[in-house]
Amino acid sequence: MGTSPMGSAGGGIANAGKEKKGQAETGGPVLEEAQKCCGCRFPLLVALLQLLLGVAVAAVAFLMVTISSSLLARETPHWAGIIMIVVSLLGFILFCITRVPDERASAQFIVKLLYFFLCTMGLVISAVVIAFQCYHYALTNSYSCKEMGEYCMCTLDPEDPIARTFSYSGVTDCSAIVSTLPMYYLLQMVLNLAQAIVCLVGAFLIWKHRYQVFFAGLQTGSPSVQNWQKV
């Protein structure tokens, strides 16, 4: 007896469904698609953005130091950029770890946990940097400065004899303090805001359920066919 076209189509759909289910259970292409975000395998895109932003923040901070050596560490947040570079490197390590059910499941778990923690810490640090930069940006915009040798003496109220005075050494032109430095503060605010958003995205993606899949390394079924149970 012949087979109807409907039966053939139904059988093909059933076989395709079984193949897809088998691929999902064994960590095949279905799992690979779940590990992609916007066409890029997670966390490659996030780690790349973190690296670029970290380098940019550190570079701008070192440029700020060249204006005056009297600037405080909170005014030149190169440390925030360096921390973000470390976070991005950990993200690249997480990307390079092969997602296969083997004895490295514990290493994957540790790296994911560290990456989530560092992304959260990077978010907090970026928020702190933004607060400091906003404060110093508003402060420098209110400066009234005058040159005194190799120093630039700035005050908030030149008519007040007891007003707080800010001294910047190694400055030959006070315009660098009242014009160039606020521009760097503003640039740091923008870069750290972008950095905070990227860290938030990275932490959120790690927190999502589909990125909390770890292989327990438990073998079920026949030893010849390795089926691994995911938890």
From TrEMBL:
Its main location: membrane. It comes from the Eukaryota. The keyword Transmembrane helix applies. Keywords: Membrane, Transmembrane, Transmembrane helix. Residues 1-21 are annotated as: Disordered. GO terms for cellular component: dystrophin-associated glycoprotein complex; sarcolemma. InterPro entries: CD20-like, Sarcospan. This is Sarcospan. It is a multi-pass membrane protein. It comes from Onychostoma macrolepis. The chain crosses the membrane at residues 44-67, 79-101, 113-138, 185-207. It is found in: Membrane.
